[in-house]
Each structure stands twice: as structure tokens, then as C-alpha cells.
């Protein structure tokens, strides 16, 4: 994946080139009073915003590396912190475990944030130091001379007017060349993806430590760089685990701006864990206690220099923090179980080998040669594991007829059903959904019901009304490779989903289901696995919660005998219980089709505040919840002038007003709906044209892509479709690219001017998520 940062046109970067004999590229420092080497214009940056305002080079240029070396910003004074250590605090804002931080603890976020700061102290040639002053409730604020890392909530991010595609924003403020205030604000859901914490960063996660280390670089006075191997590269280094610390470029930069200075006392090194040794500031060496990470039940079992605490859900001996909260490498001083100990940065101790239970911690037993948490039932174990012999054991996904639960999922193609014989893994049979595709699969009509395997229930508007279909949202072809289909972006919309045009677009065993999407005029379908019409020997197709599923034993399967028998419905056996003309099957019952009158100013019988908010708005003091206007009590903090994490534009409009051009929709400030497709809660747009996987519109008559569409040559007058810009490539040809859509892959940097909600007198570095493409870093 490619991400981009940018600064506002009112704030720029400066460059100080460090080139070796091999032609190594530059690192860039912000500066005051610089001028571009070739063009001789005033600058404060070498690589700046899209458009290049205030800087010497536009990151969208195809020759950005050439520009960086031949037209650098030079001759000014580099920005830096004159007083060290650089002191900062972290405001978690109650976001641990929430939004894009699902499954991530506060201590893990704290450790990863410190790790990102530590990266800039590692080179032995630098005298840069930092000091973490703990957590705070202070929010990012200009001019308060506090350096805050703030984890924004979704409502905070929206109220700040920041783009959803931006990963983070850094705001360093300087007087002359002296930095005196900086804040880093982090997007709770970066580009719609979850965060990952080193070393447990999933392949589809954004690497929190890598993004944070990049932002810290801005906070210290460094700007973007051109080489892809640089931490400060103007695009992200990839999706998944990519954090590897500073490149040689950043090491040269931090050692030049913050060189090692001679010292005569520890105080000159910033205190803490850096001490003055032989006239230079060095990291204090701390050895772990001999009992570190051994199992325990009391402090006495840990011996001198260690205490018994709970870490990662296990009772372990951890080294007591030394003076100044110093710890062995790979550990950070934290308060656990009310004790100051050196906790592993990974969040847990390594697996502990054992030969008997006495070597394990409280609540553990020795099983298979390692200490494991004891359990009594499956609910105590993580998803995919079950309690076997008092130990949580990883289990294979359930097969047909095997027990299942929220902890014990079924194998692919099966779902967990509550039957008369308990919760069992099974599949639908007979004809439980249109064309034999089970409900919940991609391409199946959902009508607000849940979809399987991460698919979303998305509303598509056509001349006959709004139809809701299960579709998997995508940001790259990788997502669709896992579920079937190709990643298509619908014309005139930022929505991208896994669609298909034929069976060849699907995985083996799948078919392109156009039963629901086809009549909408999209020319697309979605890949699904047709349901088997019969059950294997020993199973019967039995009604279960309005569906027909294979259950061991059970009643005789009569679906398909031409008679709508007792227990069969239009959804469980459509071939025997088909609805008459003018009616459709809804929830197993044939109902007369209602015309779509949304927008006529009247809340009709078939409309509610979810399906047609414009005709059925909730009155003041109530909010829409699944089609019903319910009374809510404003949070106790409402009215304090701050949009707190528990508030949004619905529950407390006075603290969380929407900006110009946006409206409050289900508690989130969004642009007014305009084009297809819409989510089930919105009501806008018309039937969409089919598009190719690169997002271009396909002409229905010729089958060719149209000029002016994204990814295609610009129109004759040099314009593109709304939201795009005409980009001239190095060979003189042009192409239409999208300024802010993370699903379009631009040829260069897609930096932008921040929202008008951001004060232009400040320096902002916005890190954007654009096209999805993994960038491989060269070995160094």
C-alpha cells in the first residue's frame, strides 16, 4: 500500500543533502530563510504538498528524485529543538481496544509509541534524547508548549475536519529555527484499516510503530525524503510489518542536527536512562533479574531485584525498574499490579518451559512441556480454541455436524446454526436463497441482515427502489483474492467492492452470482458458492430459524417435490413456494412490492428513519436506531465546549458541530449523499455504470473505457471527471488520477491541501493512504 503525507501550502520542508560517493540520496530538514537551488524562489521545504506550493519539488512529479538533488531548498537555518531531552506525553483518549485498535491494550500502544521515539536515539553518533512524561488528559493544542501524542476518536477526527484517508497529522511549531511545540494526532481507522503493534502486525494492518516513527521525525524538524528506503519517504513503506527503524539517511540527519556533545555529568544527558560515560552521553546498561519471566505466585519466589506481576495474562517475575525508570533492552518501565517493573515491549514474556506445575505461574498448569493457562470451559479460551484437559487448545474448524460456538468457528462453507441437537456446523440446503446461493454470501440480498465472512450489507439505488446486497469492501486485489472476484470501483463513487463479470473472475468452486445485482443494470455480480440442494447420507434438510439446513437425522427433505409443504417457505424452498407476480419474498413471507417514494417529503408506510432519513427524520432529543427513533440522554460532558470521546454530532451537537458542507448522519459528520452506491442508512444516487478493476467506467455500447475517467487519458480540454486531476507524466502523456481516493493508484505523490478546518498558519504533515501497492525496501 502507498500512503502519502503532506504539509499545508503555508508550511514547508527544507533540505540538507548528505551525498556519498555512491550517489546516496538526501535527508531533509525543515528550515527558515531558504531558497530553491535552481528556481531561486523562497522556500522552507524541498519536497512539499501536491502542487509544490512553498517548496521546491512537487511529490507528484515523476522526476521527484532528480528535483530533490538538483533543486533542493538551501541556505536557511534548520529547525531543531535547542533544549534536550525532547519531552512528550501520550493521551490514549480511551481508544485502547476501540475502533482501529481492537485487541490492542493501552500498554502495547504506550510501548510502541516509546519504541518509535527511541528509534531516533539509536545511532551512536547522535546526542538526541527524549523523555516520556507519562499519560495525560491534555489534548493537542497549539502554542501550549506541550508535546502531545493524541489518539483521536472517530468523532474527534471528523470534528477536526481531517480526511479519512490520512493516517496521522503532525503539527510542529517554530520561532525562527527553534521548535517549541509539536503535536501528533493519529487516525483511529487509518484508511479503513486496523492498526497493528510491533511485533504482532498483521498483513492487512497499518504498522503503528512505523507511522509513529515517521511522525516523530517531523516533530524533530525533519521533512519528507525521496528515496523509498527512507523512513521519511513521502509515501508509506507498505502494509503489514514494515518497521525497521531509521535508514542511513535519517541516521545522517539526526547526527548532523543533533550531534553528540561532550558531557561532564549525567544531567547533561537528559537524565533518565542516559548517562555520561567518558565524556559522552550513552544509554545506561541494566541487566535483567535472574528470575525475569519465570512463573510465580508471590514476590518471594522472584528473589532480589524482581517482583511477581501479571503480564500478558500470566503471573511472571519481572525486573524492578532501576533509578530513573531504566530497564534492560527490549523492556519499558511500567506500573503493573501496582508495582514499577520492566515489562517486555512485546506485551508478554516468551513461552515458559516446564516439567511440572510448580514451575508455572498462578492459574497455569504444565502441559506439553510449556506453562499454559488453565481453563474450565470453552468460553475462557480465545476464538478457535477449546478447553481440553483443562488447557486451551487450538482446534481445527468444525466440519459438518460438529459442535460450534462463538469460540469454535466452522470450516469454510459452513455456518454455526442453533438446531434441536445443539449448535452445529451446517450449510443450507434445498433452495434457501435465490438461485441456490445461501443467504449471507456475497451477492445475496441482505435487507439489513448480517453478511458472512466480513461482507457488508450495502444499498444500491435503481429505478425500482433500493436493494441491499452483501458485498465485500476492498482496497486492493489482495482482499478479493481471498473471497473471490476483482476489486471494482463504481463510477461517481468512492465505494469499491469485490465484484465479478463472469465465473472466470471467481475462485475454484465459486460462480458469479448476478441474480440480485444483474437486474440493477450494473453488469456485475459477486462470487459465491452455490448451496448443495441435497444433504449427505445421515442428514436431513430441516427447517431451522426460517432456513433449511442439513441436520443429522431430522425430518424428510421434501423441498423440490412441487408442493409447498408445512415448514417450507418462499425463502427455505423457493421452487415449491414461489411468490406470485407483484410480490417478493421478505423474511420467508410473500409481500406486495412497495414503490420507492423516498424523497417525496412524506414518511410512507414502507419507510423509516434508516431507510429514508430525509422523509422520516427523528425529532430533537431522539436518534435513529435500526429504523426506530429512540430517546437518548446526552453525555454528562455535553456542554463543556469540547467534543469528548463519548460525544458526537447527534448526542451533543453543541460540542460537536459539523463543519461547512457536512451534515450529521448517525453521529458522524459526512458530506451530503450524492451518488451510488449508498450504505443501507443513506438514500442517494442512481444506477451505476459497470467499471473495470482499475476504476474506469466501461461504455455499455463499445465496451471501452472513457477518456477523462480515473486511470484513463485526460479529456481533450485537459480535464477529468469530478474529483480527479490531469497528471502529466515524464514522457509527455497524461492520465486522470484521484486526489484523495485510497483505491486509486497514482503515479506519484498524491499530497493535498488540508481541510479548511485546519488553521493555515500552522505546519501540518498529513500522512495519506492512496493506492494499494507494497513497496519493497532495498537491502542496506
Amino acid at each position: 500500500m502507498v500512503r502519502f503525507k503532506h504539509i499545508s501550502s503555508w508550511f514547508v520542508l527544507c533540505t540538507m543533502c548528505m551525498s556519498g560517493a555512491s550517489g546516496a540520496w538526501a535527508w531533509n530538514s525543515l528550515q527558515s530563510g531558504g531558497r530553491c537551488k535552481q528556481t531561486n524562489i523562497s522556500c522552507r521545504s524541498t519536497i512539499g504538498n501536491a502542487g509544490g506550493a512553498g517548496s521546491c519539488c512537487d511529490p507528484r512529479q515523476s522526476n521527484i528524485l532528480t528535483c530533490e538533488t538538483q533543486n533542493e531548498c538551501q541556505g536557511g537555518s534548520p529547525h531543531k529543538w535547542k533544549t534536550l531531552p525532547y519531552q512528550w506525553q501520550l493521551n490514549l483518549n480511551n481508544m485502547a481496544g476501540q475502533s482501529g485498535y481492537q485487541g490492542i491494550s493501552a500498554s502495547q500502544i504506550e510501548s510502541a509509541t516509546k519504541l518509535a521515539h527511541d528509534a531516533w536515539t539509536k545511532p551512536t553518533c547522535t546526542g538526541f534524547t527524549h523523555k516520556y512524561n507519562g499519560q495525560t488528559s491534555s489534548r493537542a493544542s497549539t502554542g501550549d508548549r506541550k508535546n502531545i501524542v493524541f489518539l483521536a476518536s472517530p468523532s474527534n477526527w471528523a470534528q477536526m475536519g481531517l480526511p479519512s484517508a490520512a493516517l496521522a497529522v503532525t503539527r510542529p511549531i517554530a520561532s525562527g529555527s527553534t521548535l517549541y511545540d509539536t503535536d501528533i494526532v493519529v487516525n483511529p481507522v487509518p484508511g479503513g484499516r486496523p492498526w497493528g503493534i510491533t511485533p504482532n502486525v498483521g498483513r492487512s494492518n497499518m504498522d503503528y510503530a512505523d507511522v509513529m516513527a515517521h511522525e516523530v521525525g517531523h516533530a524533530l524538524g525533519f521533512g519528507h525524503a525521496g528515496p523509498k528506503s527512507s523512513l521519511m519517504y513521502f509515501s508509506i513503506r507498505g502494509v503489514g510489518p514494515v518497521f525497521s527503524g531509521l535508514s542511513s539517511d535519517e541516521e545522517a540527519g539526526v547526527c548532523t542536527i543533533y550531534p553528540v556533545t561532550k558531557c561532564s555529568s549525567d544531567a547533561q544527558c537528559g537524565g533518565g536512562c542516559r548517562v555520561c560515560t567518558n565524556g559522552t552521553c550513552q544509554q545506561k546498561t541494566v541487566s535483567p533479574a535472574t528470575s525475569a519471566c519465570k512463573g510465580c505466585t508471590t514476590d518471594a519466589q522472584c528473589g532480589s531485584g524482581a517482583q511477581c506481576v501479571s503480564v500478558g495474562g500470566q503471573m511472571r517475575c519481572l525486573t524492578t525498574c532501576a533509578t530513573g525508570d531504566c530497564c534492560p533492552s527490549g523492556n519499558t518501565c511500567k506500573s503493573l499490579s501496582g508495582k514499577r517493573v520492566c515489562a517486555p515491549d512485546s506485551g508478554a514474556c516468551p513461552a515458559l518451559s516446564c516439567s511440572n506445575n510448580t514451575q508455572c505461574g498462578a492459574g497455569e498448569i504444565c502441559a506439553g512441556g510449556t506453562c499454559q493457562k488453565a481453563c474450565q470451559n470453552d468460553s475462557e479460551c480465545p476464538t478457535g480454541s477449546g478447553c481440553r484437559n483443562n488447557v486451551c487448545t487450538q482446534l481445527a474448524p468444525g466440519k459438518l455436524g460438529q459442535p460450534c460456538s462463538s469460540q469454535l468457528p466452522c470450516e469454510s462453507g459452513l455456518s454455526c446454526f442453533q438446531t434441536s441437537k445443539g449448535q452445529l456446523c451446517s450449510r443450507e440446503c434445498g433452495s434457501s436463497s435465490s438461485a441456490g446461493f445461501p443467504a449471507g454470501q456475497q451477492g445475496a440480498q441482505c435487507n439489513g441482515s448480517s453478511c458472512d465472512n466480513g461482507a457488508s450489507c450495502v444499498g444500491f439505488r435503481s429505478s425500482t427502489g433500493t436493494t441491499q446486497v452483501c458485498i465485500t469492501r476492498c482496497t486492493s486485489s489482495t482482499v478479493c483474492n481471498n473471497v473471490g472476484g476483482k476489486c471494482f470501483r463504481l463510477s461517481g463513487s468512492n465505494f469499491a467492492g469485490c465484484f465479478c463479470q463472469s465465473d472466470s473472475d471467481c475462485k475454484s468452486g465459486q460462480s458469479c452470482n448476478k441474480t440480485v445485482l444483474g437486474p440493477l443494470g450494473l453488469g456485475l455480480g459477486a462470487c459465491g458458492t452455490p448451496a448443495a440442494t441435497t444433504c449427505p447420507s445421515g442428514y436431513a434438510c430441516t427447517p431451522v430459524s426460517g432456513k433449511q439446513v442439513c441436520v443429522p437425522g431430522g425430518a424428510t427433505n421434501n423441498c423440490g417435490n412441487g408442493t409447498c409443504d408445512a415448514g417450507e417457505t418462499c425463502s427455505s424452498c423457493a421452487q415449491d413456494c414461489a411468490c406470485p407476480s407483484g410480490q417478493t419474498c421478505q423474511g420467508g413471507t410473500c409481500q406486495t412490492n412497495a414503490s420507492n417514494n423516498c424523497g417525496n417529503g412524506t414518511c410512507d408506510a414502507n419507510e423509516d428513519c434508516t431507510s429514508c432519513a430525509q422523509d422520516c427524520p427523528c425529532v430533537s432529543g431522539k436518534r435513529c436506531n435500526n429504523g426506530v427513533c429512540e430517546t437518548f440522554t446526552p453525555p454528562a460532558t455535553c456542554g463543556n465546549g469540547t467534543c469528548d470521546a463519548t460525544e458526537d454530532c447527534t448526542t451533543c451537537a453543541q460540542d460537536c458541530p459539523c463543519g461547512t458542507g457536512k451534515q450529521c448522519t448517525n453521529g458522524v459528520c459526512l458530506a451530503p449523499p450524492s451518488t451510488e452506491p449508498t450504505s443501507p442508512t443513506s438514500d442517494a444516487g442512481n444506477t451505476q455504470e459497470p467499471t473495470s478493476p482499475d476504476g474506469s467506467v466501461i461504455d455499455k455500447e463499445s465496451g471501452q473505457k472513457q477518456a477523462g475517467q480515473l486511470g484513463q487519458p485526460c479529456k481533450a480540454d485537459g480535464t477529468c471527471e469530478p474529483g480527479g486531476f490531469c497528471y502529466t507524466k515524464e514522457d509527455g502523456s497524461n492520465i486522470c488520477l484521484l486526489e484523495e481516493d485510497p483505491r486509486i493508484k497514482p503515479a506519484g505523490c498524491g499530497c493535498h491541501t488540508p481541510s479548511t478546518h485546519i488553521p493555515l498558519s500552522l505546519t501540518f504533515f498529513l500522512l495519506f493512504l492512496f493506492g494499494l501497492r507494497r513497496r519493497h525496501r532495498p537491502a542496506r
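The two ends are 21 Å apart (CA to CA). Residues 1-25, 673-705, 738-763, 769-780 have pLDDT under 50 and may be disordered.
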